[in-house]
């Protein structure tokens, strides 16, 4: 029995909601929601995350084999519950500057332009509201996350994720600003000035996120914000570096390196930063190894000196393949492979390593064929429906657990052995295979996202690239993430007025 006084005040019919909205994109909303989920879960409260509409190519798969935003999967992990598409009922996966694939309740519905999506919004709001209602009937507390800036005045009338959803849920709002990017006073005051009186009343207080330095020196700033806005500041969250949380948006891919391997003697892995890169968090387990640097590279550099090169997933394989060829990256990668360097492709990157990628139905754009890099004896045909599975696999005895999200089928040349053994998809036992390992043994491709999540597979891959002396940390992948959620909750507890936050969701 849970004796926490907060639990006794929560509704037994429709769970209360708390909304975390931001002054802009990448101010730390997703991470704060994850931290709040773990904080409340540690108090024995059945808490769930919710984001009505997410825009990201970083997605994952639920136990039911449905697709949702990776950030909400992380938040569900933090809440110690299984992810469900009701937590992210609408997912937009950009395929171009003006178009995106629309995923509704875990299934790809259509590709839409920005104007086409705008016409769908009323119906999608109803879908999202119904998903939230279902969650409120199953959990004690729901933490809503906003999207981008909650004060985009030209979009607020058709907004389905920020104040409109907070109002539907009757949720108090915590407004988050990022002091690291500068202009924190303008962020908070300006946001409140841009929204209407009803929305201003809904804002219960603010959080100043990502502070560097001595927090005590910002006390005058807190008083100024509270005096100017009439809203309490629930706390100032310092920058953290003693643990890592998967991010929905990441500076490491938005500001890629422009030089080659570091001269500090550390081993470096190159990940080609494709224009439509997806699931960049696949490489977080490698980034968290102290002996390894993972470099996201956009502009062509000499690959000599890198221990391995990885082509990541892509939301538009043929477009990114053309980019590789136009920028000179294709020749760089091929030369690196021919010199004996280990090359790996994951999902779209796997498709690009083959001989040809065909899109006869125009699923990613104009129908046609594209010549691949020719480093693996495989050919790919893009076709519906989309494959979305949680998959158990093995690589020569090293067991792994990942997920597949891809359109199409990749066929291996006759006589060529596959790379991985697959023994379960979406909880259903099977005897299948995945991927391809070149006859040289130095080039591999797989559809498996989350490939590096388990330490045995990571250790085997490190040996494959010539680093057998390195071992994956015991706290690695899911175990490492779980420990990080506890550290995040401790971090928030130390720097936020969590009692004031709890009062926001208590019922009279």
UniProtKB/TrEMBL annotation:
What sequence ranges are listed for the domain CobB/CobQ-like glutamine amidotransferase?
Answer: 269-453
Catalytic machinery residues: 347, 449
| TM annotation in the entry | none
Could you state one GO biological process linked to this protein? cobalamin biosynthetic process
Fetch the InterPro entries from UniProt.
Class_I_gatase-like, CobQ/CobB/MinD/ParA_Nub-bd_dom, CobQ_GATase1, CobQ_N, CobQ_synth, GATase_3, P-loop_NTPase
Q: Which Pfam families match?
A: CbiA (PF01656), GATase_3 (PF07685)
Origin organism of this chain?
Desulfatirhabdium butyrativorans
HAMAP family noted in UniProt:
CobQ (MF_00028)
Q: In which pathway does it act?
A: Cofactor biosynthesis; adenosylcobalamin biosynthesis
Provide the family line: Belongs to the CobB/CobQ family. CobQ subfamily.
Specify the CobQ/CobB/MinD/ParA nucleotide binding domain's residue ranges.
18-244
Q: Which UniProt keywords apply?
A: Cobalamin biosynthesis, Glutamine amidotransferase
Q: Which GO terms describe its molecular function?
A: ABC-type vitamin B12 transporter activity; catalytic activity
The protein's job, in short, is:
Catalyzes amidations at positions B, D, E, and G on adenosylcobyrinic A,C-diamide. NH(2) groups are provided by glutamine, and one molecule of ATP is hydrogenolyzed for each amidation.
Under which name does UniProt file this protein? Cobyric acid synthase
Source species taxonomy: Bacteria, Pseudomonadati, Thermodesulfobacteriota, Desulfobacteria, Desulfobacterales
């Amino acid at each position: 029995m849970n004796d926490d006084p907060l639990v006794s005040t929560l509704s037994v019919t429709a769970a209360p909601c708390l909304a975390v909205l931001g002054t802009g994109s990448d101010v730390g909303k997703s991470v704060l929601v994850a931290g709040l989920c773990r904080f409340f879960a540690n108090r024995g409260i059945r808490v769930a995350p919710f984001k009505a509409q997410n825009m990201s190519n970083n997605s994952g798969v639920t136990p039911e084999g449905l697709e949702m935003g990776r950030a909400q999967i992380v938040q569900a992990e933090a809440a110690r519950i299984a992810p469900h598409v009701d937590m992210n009922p609408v997912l937009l996966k950009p395929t171009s500057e003006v178009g995106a694939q629309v995923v509704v309740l875990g299934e790809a519905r259509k590709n839409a332009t920005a104007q086409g999506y705008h016409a769908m919004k009323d119906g999608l709001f109803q879908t999202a509201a119904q998903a939230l209602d279902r969650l409120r009937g199953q959990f004690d507390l729901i933490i809503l996350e906003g999207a981008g800036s909650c004060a985009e005045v030209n979009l607020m009338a058709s907004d389905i994720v920020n104040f409109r959803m907070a109002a539907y849920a009757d949720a108090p709002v915590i407004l988050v600003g990022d002091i690291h990017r500068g202009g924190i006073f303008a962020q908070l005051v300006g946001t409140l000035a841009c929204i209407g009186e009803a929305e201003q009343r809904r804002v219960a207080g603010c959080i100043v996120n990502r502070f560097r330095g001595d927090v005590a020196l910002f006390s005058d700033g807190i008083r100024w914000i509270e005096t100017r806005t009439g809203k309490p500041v629930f706390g100032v969250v310092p920058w953290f570096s003693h643990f890592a949380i998967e991010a929905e948006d990441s500076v490491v891919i938005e500001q890629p390196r422009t030089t080659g391997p570091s001269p500090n003697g550390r081993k470096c892995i190159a990940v080609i930063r494709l224009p439509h890169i997806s699931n960049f968090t696949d490489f977080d387990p490698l980034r968290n190894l102290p002996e390894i640097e993972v470099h996201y590279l956009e502009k062509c550099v000499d690959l000599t000196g890198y221990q391995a090169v990885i082509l990541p997933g892509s939301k538009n394989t043929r477009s990114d393949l053309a980019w590789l060829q136009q920028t000179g990256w294709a020749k760089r990668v091929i030369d690196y492979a021919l010199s004996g360097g280990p090359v790996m492709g994951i999902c779209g990157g796997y498709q690009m390593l083959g001989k040809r990628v065909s899109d006869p139905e125009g699923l990613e754009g104009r129908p046609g064929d594209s010549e691949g890099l020719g480093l693996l004896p495989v050919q790919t045909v893009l076709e519906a429906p989309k494959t979305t599975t949680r998959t158990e696999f093995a690589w020569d005895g090293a067991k792994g657990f990942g997920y597949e999200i891809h359109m199409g089928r990749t066929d291996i040349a006759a006589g060529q052995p596959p790379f991985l053994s697959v023994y379960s998809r979406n909880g259903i036992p099977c005897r299948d295979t995945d991927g391809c390992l070149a006859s040289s043994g130095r080039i591999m491709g797989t559809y498996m996202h989350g490939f590096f999540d388990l330490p045995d597979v990571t250790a085997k891959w490190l040996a494959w690239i010539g680093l057998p002396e390195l071992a994956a940390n015991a706290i690695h992948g899911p175990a490492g993430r779980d420990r990080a959620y506890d550290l995040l909750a401790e971090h928030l507890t130390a720097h936020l007025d969590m009692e004031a936050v709890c009062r926001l969701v208590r019922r009279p």
